[in-house]
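Support request from a user on the community tier.

User writes: "When I paste my C-alpha cells into the form, the page sometimes reloads and wipes my input. The last time it worked, I copied everything first. Here is what I submitted, just in case something in the input itself triggers the reload:"
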C-alpha cells in the first residue's frame, strides 16, 4: 500500500471544493477510504488549511470540517530536524521544503501536489492527484 503525503493544495481542493480540482481530490481520498492507500499530511498543512478555510467561512465550520477530515489522514509532526533540513535545502518555497522533508523523514513513498515544478529536486516520486490515479488504475 502506497504511503502518500498530500500537499496543502490538494487538501484545499477537497475541503474548499475548488471546482477545477475537487473531483480528482475526492477520488484520491476515496482510495484512502477503501484502504487502497494511506494518506498523510504535515502538521503545517493542517494549520495552513485551517487558516485558509477560516478566511472563507465561520471558524466553527472550519473546525467541524477539519475534525471530519482528520479521520481520513494521519498528521505528521514537524520537528527541529525537519526545520533545519528545510532551512538548508535548495527549495525556493520554504513551505514546500517542509512538506518534502516531512515526507523524507517519515518514509513516505510519494508526494501528491498540483505544484510539480516546486518539487523538481525530489528524491521521491511526485504526482498530481490525477496522474497518480491514472497510474494505479
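"...and here is what came back when it finally went through:"
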Amino acid at each position: 500500500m502506497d504511503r502518500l503525503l498530500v500537499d496543502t493544495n490538494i487538501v484545499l481542493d477537497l475541503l474548499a471544493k475548488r471546482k477545477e480540482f475537487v473531483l480528482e481530490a475526492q477520488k484520491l481520498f476515496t482510495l484512502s477510504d477503501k484502504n487502497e492507500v494511506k494518506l498523510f499530511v504535515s502538521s503545517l498543512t493542517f494549520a495552513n488549511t485551517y487558516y485558509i478555510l477560516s478566511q472563507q467561512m465561520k471558524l466553527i465550520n472550519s473546525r467541524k470540517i477539519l475534525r471530519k477530515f482528520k479521520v481520513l489522514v494521519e498528521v505528521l509532526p514537524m520537528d527541529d530536524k525537519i526545520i533545519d533540513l528545510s532551512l538548508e535545502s535548495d527549495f525556493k518555497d520554504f513551505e514546500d521544503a517542509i512538506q518534502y522533508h516531512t515526507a523524507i523523514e517519515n518514509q513516505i513513498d510519494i508526494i501528491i501536489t498540483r505544484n510539480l515544478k516546486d518539487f523538481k529536486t525530489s528524491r521521491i516520486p511526485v504526482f498530481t492527484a490525477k496522474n497518480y490515479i491514472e497510474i494505479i488504475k
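Agent notes: The reload is a front-end session timeout and is unrelated to the input. The longest strand covers residues 37-42. The longest helix spans residues 43-56. Escalated to web team.
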